[in-house]
């Protein structure tokens, strides 16, 4: 019986090669697209999920209640980890984690720049990063020790074994002893690093970390077995009140989040975890389902539309005693066979496009062909596709009565026709939603790229201050300004693209004693405002002509508003205990991504002579403004200057506009994926529409011929063939608009600054859908209109 059904299925596929090709291609594209998204989703969910202690690892986040708003972030006081471990018996291990820093290391004549962090001694006991040399307890046990990666050990010493206990020089400032070598981190790590320093070093070189009023580092906890995270979260909620006794009305609380959930759930809304990359995971999971459904709908439509070609076969088989269950099994079996062919083709397509997909998404996804689970998943996906695609046709075809189908021409009932039209409408609803979403995502990315940030990011270069440059800042600046093409030079803590440090240790003239707000802060050099092309709202920039500017402060408009000043110039302000005056106000500018609103900012003058540990990241960034068209020449001359002043360290730089674009890398990837998946969905829908138009044209060939003989124009004939399809697209558009509006309104809510959802986007999407449908239908319509009348009516 099986062999007989198999032969019949193969014969039908071969007999109708065109429709079979459309079915197989549509299903293959649907399965391939779903498989790619499935692999991407699995990779996203694997980030930080491999740690053995994952169920007991928690990140601490800080919630600050301020003027009716609740701001939340992972930036916490630097002493929090050790204090929580000391006072809370539920906590087994704890570690502060420093921000990522790129620093220069030297061993002999070899000098390399590496990215790393600082962490507590518990770090390697908490996280599952395998050590090749050394032990977890000794890796970060002393301030003079450093843990490095296999890559770094091999580059400097030849092998991990040779690296242990060797000396390595850090930023030409301090020597460290290699206390451990860890395996290179896998790709599914959210916070990569190639070296780790002991947390005591971080505290020694950054005295502000020891003040409970300053936030910056992150805090990671490991709970004891059996400890209840929810109860612990309630217990530590008001933990900081104890350490801010000078202002008991200040309100900042702590929360806990599973460490392996943080990568996907890192967005806060009014102090609550409300999303993040999980939005994209859910979105593209739905897209995968939608595209697969569209492909299955194609199969259902084409199979039921061509049912008249199999009526006699069904009638004969029923007359010979075949029961409906047998026919259902046969037709579902045929659908599964087609899906099997499509699955094989889909796998080949994935193998072909995976390298390009990885490049597009900045991933390193590989097909796990060696895992039985992958083959089981692919088989299950293919089987499910076949069953879904074949279920309705099987029920539809097996339901024909043999007497009716054998005694003469059989007309399909209106119910079947309306069901097919409903399927086509649903296809285009999904396609139009994807078109609208793609346009809006692209518009938001364009909005981000064209946004007025309050400073000019074009022709602005960041140069990290490392090595000997740390003690020759003035010389570098003077020599750089002599170079043709250099317009201005200044310096800044970090860079203007992403400031993260905040403090509440600020007092000002007339401050309400109940007000202890947090402020972002940074140190800058002379000519900072002119170099950045910022706009002065009041007062002036830091100047060498005023010795008192060493204790002066510049605020942004948000800070002035926060402090309640109407005329802030000359007002007294105390920062970290240092008394000074406000000398200037700059108009608000963006120093973080557009996801965040502009925060209050205080700028201080940097008078430091050298940078300390992590200083090249904190205080050592030169800002160089270059004349348009002279970038290459200036960078070459700056490199020569670096060789003279800083011969032991390689010259490096970043462009401001590229650093800004990096903030929105995820959005750009999502935008590109949206375009690709929307195009695929539309293409698959068009395949089904093409197949239906071919079938419709075949059914109306004689009608069209008679109309032509009676004098009908080509335009009127085209309307006859396309009217039904265009009306279905119109209905789909009316359904898709509110769905797309709601989905995009939710997505745009994560941006503090965003594009608007305007009417023309929906109008353009509807027009595109109609043009696509018309273009698809016209392929067969034109062919039908130009048919030979003699051949068409020969049998009449």
Describe this structure in words.
It is found in: Cell membrane. This protein has 796 residues and is of the alpha+beta class. It is built from 27 helices and 27 strands. The strands form 5 sheets. Strands 11, 18, 19, 20, 21, 22, 23, 24 and 25 form a 9-stranded mixed sheet that branches. A 6-stranded mixed β-barrel has the order 4-5-10-7-9-8. Helix 2 (17-46) packs antiparallel against helix 23 and helix 16 crosses helix 25 (714-748). The longest helix has 38 residues, at 324-361.
How many strands in all? Answer: 27
User: Termini separation (Å)?
Assistant: 41 Å
Low-confidence stretches: 609-618
Structural class: alpha+beta
Counting DSSP H or I runs of 4 or more residues, the number of helices is: 27
The description of the largest β-sheet is: 9 strands, mixed
Taken from the alpha-carbon principal axes, the silhouette is elongated
Please indicate the count of domains.
4
What is the mean predicted local confidence, pLDDT?
A: 81
As a whole number of angstroms, the C-alpha radius of gyration is 34 Å
- How much helical structure, as a percent, in the residues? 40-55%
Beta-strand portion reads 15-25%
Transmembrane segments: 21-42, 283-302, 331-354, 374-397, 418-441, 673-695, 716-737, 757-782
Domain ABC3 transporter permease C-terminal: 286-391, 675-788
Organism: Chitinophaga qingshengii
Membrane topology: Multi-pass membrane protein
């Amino acid at each position: 019986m099986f062999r007989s059904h198999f032969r019949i299925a193969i014969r039908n596929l071969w007999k109708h090669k065109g429709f079979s090709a459309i079915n197989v291609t549509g299903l293959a594209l649907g399965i391939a697209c779903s498989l790619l998204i499935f692999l991407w989703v699995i990779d996203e969910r694997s980030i930080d999920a491999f740690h053995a202690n994952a169920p007991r690892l928690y990140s601490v986040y800080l919630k600050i209640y301020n003027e009716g708003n609740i701001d939340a972030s992972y930036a916490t006081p630097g002493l929090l980890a050790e204090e929580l471990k000391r006072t809370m018996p539920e906590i087994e291990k704890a570690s502060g984690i420093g921000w990522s820093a790129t620093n220069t290391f030297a061993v002999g004549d070899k000098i390399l720049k590496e990215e790393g962090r600082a962490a507590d001694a518990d770090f390697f006991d908490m996280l599952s990063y395998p050590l090749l040399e050394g032990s977890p307890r000794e890796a970060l046990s002393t301030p003079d020790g450093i843990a490095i990666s296999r890559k770094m050990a091999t580059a400097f010493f030849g092998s991990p074994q040779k690296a242990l206990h060797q000396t390595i020089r850090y930023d030409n400032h301090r020597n460290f002893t290699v206390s451990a070598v860890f395996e290179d981190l896998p790709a599914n790590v959210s916070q990569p690093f190639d070296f780790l320093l002991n947390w005591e070093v971080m505290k020694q070189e950054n005295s502000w970390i020891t003040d409970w009023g300053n936030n910056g580092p992150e805090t990671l906890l490991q709970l004891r077995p059996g400890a209840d995270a929810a109860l612990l979260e309630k217990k530590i909620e008001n933990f900081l009140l104890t350490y801010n006794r000078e202002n008991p009305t200040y309100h900042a609380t702590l929360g806990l989040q599973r460490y392996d959930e943080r990568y996907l759930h890192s967005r806060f809304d009014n102090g609550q975890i409300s999303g993040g990359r999980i939005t994209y995971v859910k979105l593209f999971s739905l897209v995968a389902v939608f595209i697969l459904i569209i492909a299955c709908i194609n199969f259902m439509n084409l199979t039921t539309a061509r049912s008249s070609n199999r009526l006699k076969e069904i009638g004969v088989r029923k007359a010979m005693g075949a029961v409906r269950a047998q026919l259902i099994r046969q037709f579902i079996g045929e659908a599964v066979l087609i899906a099997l062919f499509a699955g094989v083709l889909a796998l080949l397509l994935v193998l072909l496009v995976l390298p390009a997909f990885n490049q597009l998404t900045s991933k390193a996804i590989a097909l796990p062909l060696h895992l039985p689970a992958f083959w089981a998943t692919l088989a299950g996906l293919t089987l499910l596709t076949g069953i879904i695609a074949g279920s309705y046709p099987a029920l539809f075809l097996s339901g024909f009565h043999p007497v009716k189908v054998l005694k003469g021409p059989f007309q399909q009932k209106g119910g079947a026709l309306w069901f097919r039209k409903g399927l086509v409408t649903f296809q285009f609803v999904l396609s139009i939603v994807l078109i609208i979403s793609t346009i809006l995502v692209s518009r938001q990315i364009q909005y981000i790229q064209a946004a007025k940030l309050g400073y000019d990011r074009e022709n602005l270069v960041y140069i990290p201050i490392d090595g000997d440059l740390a003690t020759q800042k003035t010389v570098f600046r003077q020599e750089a300004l002599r170079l043709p093409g250099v317009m201005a030079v200044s310096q800044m803590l970090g860079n203007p693209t992403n400031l993260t440090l905040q403090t509440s240790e600020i007092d000002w003239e007339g401050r309400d004693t109940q007000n202890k707000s947090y402020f972002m802060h940074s140190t800058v050099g002379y000519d900072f405002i002119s170099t950045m092309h910022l706009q002065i709202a009041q007062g002036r920039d830091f100047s060498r002509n005023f010795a008192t500017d060493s204790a002066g402060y510049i605020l942004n408009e948000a800070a002035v508003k926060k402090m309640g000043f109407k005329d802030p110039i000359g007002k007294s302000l105390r920062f970290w205990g240092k008394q000074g005056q406000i000398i200037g106000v700059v108009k608000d500018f963006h120093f973080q991504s557009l996801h965040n609103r502009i925060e209050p900012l205080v700028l201080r003058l940097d008078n430091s002579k050298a940078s300390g540990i992590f200083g090249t990241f904190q205080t050592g960034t030169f800002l160089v403004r270059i004349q348009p068209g002279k970038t290459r020449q200036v960078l070459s001359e700056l490199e020569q200057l670096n060789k003279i002043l800083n011969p032991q360290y390689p010259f490096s730089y970043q462009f401001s506009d590229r650093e800004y674009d990096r903030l929105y890398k995820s959005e750009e990837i999502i935008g590109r994926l949206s375009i690709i998946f929307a195009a695929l969905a539309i293409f698959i829908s068009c395949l089904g529409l093409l197949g239906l138009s071919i079938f419709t044209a075949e059914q109306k060939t004689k009608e069209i011929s008679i109309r032509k003989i009676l004098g009908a124009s080509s335009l009127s004939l085209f309307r006859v063939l396309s009217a039904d399809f265009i009306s279905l697209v119109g209905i789909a558009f009316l359904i898709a608009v509110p769905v797309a509006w709601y989905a995009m309104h939710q997505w745009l809510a994560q941006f503090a600054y965003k594009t608007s959802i305007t009417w023309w986007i929906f109008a353009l999407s509807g027009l595109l859908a109609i043009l696509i449908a018309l273009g698809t239908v016209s392929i067969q319509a034109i062919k039908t209109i130009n048919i030979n009348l003699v051949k068409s009516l020969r049998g009449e």
